[in-house]
Write a structure and sequence with these properties.
two-stranded antiparallel ribbon, globular, 6 strands, alpha/beta, four-stranded parallel β-sheet, single chain
Length: 178
């Protein structure tokens, strides 16, 4: 399939802010934490990526970022933290790399560390419904993805490779090693 051309969307601005998000973003920026965001898609692949991101963000020095604020509230403390962070970890749910493609236009590409969760576990490609996979299995697979991400990050993973996921990288890793 031939890639489509770039496009943009218009997002209505807001004067609102999330009070807890302001506190969270400011605190994590002060402490030098590294944001982790994920696919939040409605399908099982998005759910596994979301669960994995939650697990990764419990490890030091990572914390959960909010893609909603990053994408739509550019003046928020969370968005400012994510833009200023030394790196941003993105766990996409599948090969479409939706969040990674958006983030490449919001954060310097060399500071992004991109992962494709589906490339780690290689299942459920014929399923959409989250409930089609029992909760215990979802959590087990998310742990596998999280452990893969944590391992790659511990080995100095940084920045995306220009060609995307490569066979020389750990399964699911779309970046390059130091």
């Amino acid at each position: 399939m031939k890639p489509k051309s770039d496009f943009s969307i218009k997002i209505e601005g807001t004067v609102g802010s999330c009070p807890v998000g302001e506190k969270w973003g400011s605190q994590n920026a002060r402490e030098g934490k590294i944001p982790v965001i994920s696919c939040e898609g409605a399908c099982i692949r998005g759910e596994i990526a979301r669960l994995a991101a939650n697990l990764v963000s419990k490890e030091e020095p990572y914390r959960r970022g909010c893609h909603g604020e990053m994408f739509t509230v550019p003046g928020s403390a969370i968005a400012q933290w994510m833009r200023a962070s030394e790196k941003v970890v993105v766990i996409d749910g599948c090969f479409l790399q939706c969040h990674g493609r958006v983030m490449k236009h919001l954060v310097a590409e060399e500071r992004l560390v991109l992962f494709d969760a589906l490339a780690v576990y290689k299942k459920y490609t014929d399923l959409f419904d989250i409930e089609a996979v029992p909760e215990a299995e979802r959590r087990r697979v998310a742990r596998l993805v999280a452990d893969t991400v944590i391992s790659a990050l511990g080995k100095g993973a940084k920045g995306p490779a220009s060609s995307g996921c490569g066979s020389a990288q750990p399964a699911g890793f779309c970046g390059r090693e130091k």
